[in-house]
Amino acid sequence: MTALSELKIGRSATVESLHLPDEIQHHLMHMGFIPEALVRAVRRAPAGDPTVYAVDGMEVALRRETAQWISVRELEEGSR
Amino acid sequence: MSDCCTTATVDVQPVQRIAGKIQTVALIGPPNSGKSTLFNRLTGLRQKVANYPGVTVEQHYGKLSGIDRSDLTLIDLPGIYSLNARTEDARVAVDVLHGRMPGAPVPDAVLLVLDSLHLQRQLMLAAPILSLGLPTLVLLNMSDLMESRGGEVDTLALAQELGVPVARISAARGTGLDAIKHFLDKKSEPVTAAVKPRLELPVVGNPRSYRQWATGISSRTKYKAPISSVWTRKLDSILLGRVTGPLLFLIVVFGVFQVVFSVGLPLSNAFQTVLNTAGAKVGLLLGHGWVESLLIEGIWKGVSAVLVFLPQILLLFLFVGILEDSGYLARAALIADRVMRPIGLNGKAFIPLLSAYACAVPAIMAARTIENKRDRLATILVTPFMTCSARLPIYMLMIAAFIPNKKLLGDFFGLQAAVMLSLYVLGFLAALGTARILKSSFLKASSAPFILELPQYRVPTVRSLGLRLFDRGKVFVQQAGTVILCVTLVLWILSHIPFSAQLPQSIIGHIGQWIEPIIKPLGFNWKIGIGLLSSVVAREVIVGTLGTLYGADPATQSLNLQAALRHDLTLGGAMALVVFFAFAMQCTSTLAIVRREMNSWKWPALQFTYMTVLAYVAALATNILVSHFF
User: Which residues of A touch B230 (CB under 8 A)?
Assistant: First the structure.
């Protein structure tokens, strides 16, 4: 288990759990960050943060300070 | 611009509800799914549409005349992800939907607009909406795009799963709208012994169960998501590139300013020649007398002094329109987040700040999309520092009159454009600095998380850009024909009483000389003082005022406004004047909207005082520095 913020660009992972205040967690889940969902780190903003994640066919940008509270399981390279 | 923000909304009378009969229909859906585009199609109105989430921040009403049902009212609502509202704009949508919004009619049917490019996720919203129990039609918007990118869905199976009719539409092209008419025609008849289909909905309020439900439905209806746009990815790798991103951002900004000068200025000079010739021709017909003096020297000089800036304003709106419609605005917010963070503001605050380049009023309303209350207030308070288009006339006038047209970077960037750009930067820095002070003192708050959806790029349509320019142009001309006309009329009268007195001995001359001591240190003369007073109504009024006052003064009557200003103002005074305008809160509409949004006069009063003091001090410093060095 790692934090989503540690996911390297181009790598994918499945969401395990979210550890954020209820309200924010709810919002993120509605945006697709739900346990079992597949997330991919697409690119970082020019300054290195926030990072753009592809989830559920959409691209959503999150800051490191938020992404570090989402734990994910990284997929083996080549498995997807 | 004082009422650049009037929206074409129809007033609705409270209607007697008749059980089982549809009178009010609500448009609901996730952000950026195309509700307002559909609203405009169905009502023939022109609500603002653009390509980023959160364009619509309040409810709008219209009659469904686009599909010949003018008896029905359609409500356009801000986008929502769920019925648990986190932001002010989402709260509006949920309140209207539940019939809790005072003054808003209670909707008795729902058009649920979903973006079919992301149907699986957008279906999550269907669960809470269907559980409201209102007659619902599900509209799969952008279905033309979905099909052309290889996406598929079984519409019939989806209708069966949801227990409500489903239709594919394209709001942008206007296809598939017959289904809405058909749905409303059928549902408008009183329902007798309705047979409700059995519908299994997930547990209310739990995103996880919504999600499972939506996934189940999308697999049973054989939904195949379209391939995501390849060129959005490719464009992003350049526009958000580590080096290319910020570089292109700067090139775009420099380019905009240079075009406003190299294309806009000749256009507006040509326009001025036309207006002057027209004025002179009419003047000849009127003969020599007070009628000619009033109409030509007074009103026409004042109104046309402002009107000539129409080409530049339209150019600026064209650029802002392209940025908003293409989807770049959300990327700009992403790039800016790093800059905004140390200030204590969210990168999302950048979206209202950027749209304030057109006008602060809609920008202040757009701050409703900011979750954190203190962040929202801070954003509202600093937004008027952003250089809105109403500052453009006075900037252009002063720069054209006082700054030589020297080239700095070849043909690409000139000195005039550079001065203009520095004024924009100055306003931006004032906004950031003020936000920093606010956020580190009494608006201190833990920062809200930055969660931003990036829309796919779209090529802005000529139609939507054209309509924007037309609407803005109309407002600008109307403003010149109403507010500025009235102000110049009053000024002309005051400058000719007592009758046959010289300008300095007229009423306006006395008022001017009375305030002159206050503004003298800034390098302003009394005419500028009158301009400052009159521009409290709206910033561009000062140009009209100066046109009228210099037209009424025999010493400068024969000169054009630029020459007249050079005749009587130093470079220091001229630069102090534009700096004053960069900071001062000369706009009654902005004050009114801040009052409305914050529900108190305290904030606009504070804002006005702070900005005016800052403007005075900065103008004073500019006058001293410029006079010393040049």
Answer: none
